[in-house]
Amino acid sequence: MVSRLREWLRDRLGLEALEHVADKKDVPVHRHSFWYYWGGMTLFLFGIQVATGILLLLYYRASADEAYESVRFIMTQVSFGWLIRSIHSWSANLMIGAVMVHMFSAFMLKAYRAPREATWLSGMVLLGLSLAFGFSGYLLPWNQLAFFATKVGTDITGAVPVIGPFMLRFLRGGEHITGGTLTRFFGFHVAILPAVVTVILGVHLYLVTHHGMSVPPSVEGRTPPPPRMKFVPNFLLRDMVGWLAALALLALLAALFPWELGLKADPYASAPAGIKPEWYFGWMFQTLRMLPSHILGIEGELVGILGIGLGGVVWLLVPFLDDPRGQGPRARFWRVLGAVAIVYVVVFTLLVYRGATP
Amino acid sequence: MRLPRILIAPLATLALLAALPAAASAARAGANPQNSCLDCHRALDDARLAAPAKAFAEDVHGAHGLGCIGCHGGDPTDADITSMDPDKGFKGTPARKDIAEMCATCHASAEFMKRYNPQPYIFSMAEFRTSVHCKKIAVGDPKVATCTNCHGVHGMLSRKDPRSPVNRRNVPATCSKCHNPEYMKGRTVPTNQYALYRVSVHGKALLEKGDLSAPACNNCHGNHGAVPPNTRDISLVCGTCHGREGELFAKSKVKAGLELEGKRGCVTCHGNHGVQLPTDALIGTTGDGVCGRCHESGSAGARASDVIVPAFHALKARIGDADSLLAVADRLGMEVEAGRELLKQADDQLVNVRATLHGFDTKQITAVLTEGDGLADKAIAQARDALRDWRIRRIGMALSVVVILLMAGLLALRIRRLERGPGA
Questions:
Q1: Is A241 close to B393, i.e. CB distance below 8 A?
Q2: Exposed (0-12), middle (13-18) or buried (19+): which is B414, by Cβ within 10 Å?
Q3: From first to last of its 358 residues, what are the pLDDT tens digits of chain A?
Q4: Which of B401, B408, B419 sits opposite A252 (nearest CB)?
Q5: Rounded distance, CA B198 to CA B171, Å?
Q6: Contact (CB, 8 A) for B140 and B90
Q7: Cα dihedral sign for A56, A60, A62, A64?
Q8: What secondary structure letter does DSSP report for A264?
Q9: Which of A8, B104, B263, B381 could in theory staple to B268 by disulfide, Cβ–Cβ 3.0 to 4.6 A?
Q10: Is the alpha carbon torsion for B377, B380, B385, B386 positive or negative?
């Protein structure tokens, strides 16, 4: 019966092509293979986000008068609403963590080298979209912390030269954060960003499949070449073990540390003490906070924003700046720079939580 | 052309007479651009005579353009000593007994006062006459306060000015200038009010915290009509601020009973000048409970107290239990907002009980207590539900983690089997 159904589907959906791709795809096995799992992990957590996000949508109401109350309703009245919301929030953070690991590991293993430049670029766009998902979703419960964190975040955007004031008004839907901002962020979060991610993610996955897994330069030249593992089923089954581990971690986090709702946003209240952005924006926030008020006569914050922006552009263009062989002094320079960037991001993120100020 | 000397005096008198109504009107209206009084007195070497002119620079009357003439008469346009000629209306220092009447000339006139303030305080001489101060002045007592003793003189400031002796925060100290043992020696009026007031809940609020909603002396005694409030229903005095308690007490049987015994309403339990923040220990017939002062053991009042007091403390204990349970649930990450809302309502009922106690109506008090109990019980139930949910979640979480790990283990086995097989 099952085999007849499979035949029926194969004839109609053209599954042979997919089966062929799956059968052809394999993964090199070497001492850095562990890092290959992080892309799949990110994809799994993204799937959790989509599923839990759709469930939350059934009850969420995107207006300043109802958003907070609807999230409270989800958490207190809807069966397993607390679990869905907690998993959505925790999974969002784990996903951004997984994206970061995936990106830094790709950088350090020089997976961006030719012919994978477009894979790197599409991955960087996906990282940016993930951060945008986090930033827009954070405001949706319309609580005090989210309100003021969004204010600080959009204020920083507003400080960008030339386009800053326009970006600030575009993000806020006006000069101030209002119910209009909430509706706008909701639109970004559930319509615009998912649509864009679907396209870019499709391109990224196509490129990964098309070019196959990159082998790091330290392994590439070896003879004999590293053995290869079939993607289906060997690697996929290993992937699934990792996904189950992530699911168990999510269950633990959601049950032991349910995501708080806090107090409803009050635009007339003073900002809560020690307001800080989500952890993944922490290193940028800390950088701006620790800069002096003026550097060479230019406003410190502006220098910081320009510096971070320039760093981001350089990071994005690294496939075109690094040695295509992944060897030699230029390659070493970029490897060291990558290690410094990782240490910088980790240290500055930790500094936010230690309350370090200039 | 020179006038014959013989005509100068009559013409000057005529001119002066013609000018007097205009000058008087100008003085009342405050239009007084020239003030020779200040010019001369400021330059005098005698500090006693110079001080009023110097102090007048800050005077609220001076700030409104009013001059010396309004109180002292004379001719401020005359730069010579003749300006103080009684023929020119100079009155000198007003007699103490006349000061209030003199101030009333302007301050009792709504029409006049409205020129300076659209919503002025209109002084009532009739009210002042009801005060002990005025009565004593009328019989020639020289040691009793009149307007200038409280408000100051020459350097008189608006009562809104924090330096003014009649600014609310300064009133107790101002009253105590006379109402102290030394000044009142030989009189029967009590003199410990200020010492008691300073350590009272009202005194601490006003003097230490600067809480301007707290009463000063005049809020209970009146200011210009100041009388000892023991001559009136004291619940009306306290009820000015403590409205609900005053209203309930005014309707209660206890009020009438206290009046029969010659006791003074609120003061019987709370005291007057030294009133302290009432605690729940005041309720009851034992320990610090004030009910026992009048209600002997076994009396109807004591029996009512035996019913109400344990129920009151039981409500407090229930609220405390609900608070602790909700705090535990909150710490465990459970949503307790609904429980907190119920607890707030129960707390409100506890406050309501404290107010209702002033009506001394057992039925009414019991009804409020019952309502509070119901709310506290609901809050406890909410907290217990949250804690039960938390336990269920933990069990669910443990089971799901076991299932997930089991699946992961099975997958690992599958991988091993797969890779051991011939196709590996």
A1: no
A2: middle
A3: 888 998 898 888 888 888 888 889 999 999 999 999 999 999 999 999 999 999 999 999 999 999 999 999 998 889 999 999 999 999 999 999 999 999 999 999 999 999 999 999 999 999 999 999 999 999 999 999 999 999 989 998 898 889 999 999 999 999 999 999 999 999 999 999 999 999 999 999 999 999 999 999 999 888 889 999 999 899 999 999 999 999 999 999 998 888 888 889 998 888 887 788 889 999 999 999 899 988 888 888 899 999 999 999 999 999 999 999 999 999 999 999 999 999 999 999 999 888 655 4
A4: B401
A5: 12
A6: no
A7: negative
A8: B
A9: B263
A10: positive
The ranges of chain A annotated as CATH 1.10.287 are: 277-358
What is the rounded (10 degree) CA torsion for B91, B60, B45, B33?
-70
Residues of chain A within CATH 1.20.810.10 domain(s) are: 23-150+181-275
The β-bridge partners of A26 are: A230
Sign of CA dihedral A169, A173, A174, A175: negative
B125: CB partners within 8 A, 6+ apart: B100, B101, B104, B108
Residues of A in contact with B400 (CB under 8 A): 248, 251
State the helix-helix crossing angle for B300-331 and B337-356, rounded to 10 degrees. 160
Percent of chain B as helix, strand, coil, to the nearest 5: 65, 0, 35
Element (H, E) at B219: helix B217-221
**Single-letter amino acid, residue B169:** R
- Please give the Cα distance from A94 to B53 (Å, whole number): 80
**Given CB atoms, is A271 within the 8 Å cutoff of chain B?**
no
User: What's the alpha-carbon Rg for chain A, to the nearest Å?
Assistant: 22
The answer to whether A235 faces chain B, any CB pair under 8 Å, is: no
List the alpha helices (DSSP H) in A140-235: 144-158, 164-172, 179-187, 193-211, 217-220
Helical segments of B332-361, H only: 337-356
Q: Is the complex ipTM more than 0.85?
A: no
In angstroms, what separates the C-alpha of B346 from chain A's closest C-alpha?
21
CATH number of A23-150+181-275: 1.20.810.10
Which of B334, B335, B404 lies at the smallest CB-CB distance from A247?
Answer: B404
Provide the 8-state DSSP code for A44: H
Correct CATH for A277-358 of 1.10.287, 1.20.1730, 2.40.128, 1.20.1540: 1.10.287
Give the domains, in start order, of chain B with CATH numbers.
232-276 (no CATH), 300-395 (1.20.140)
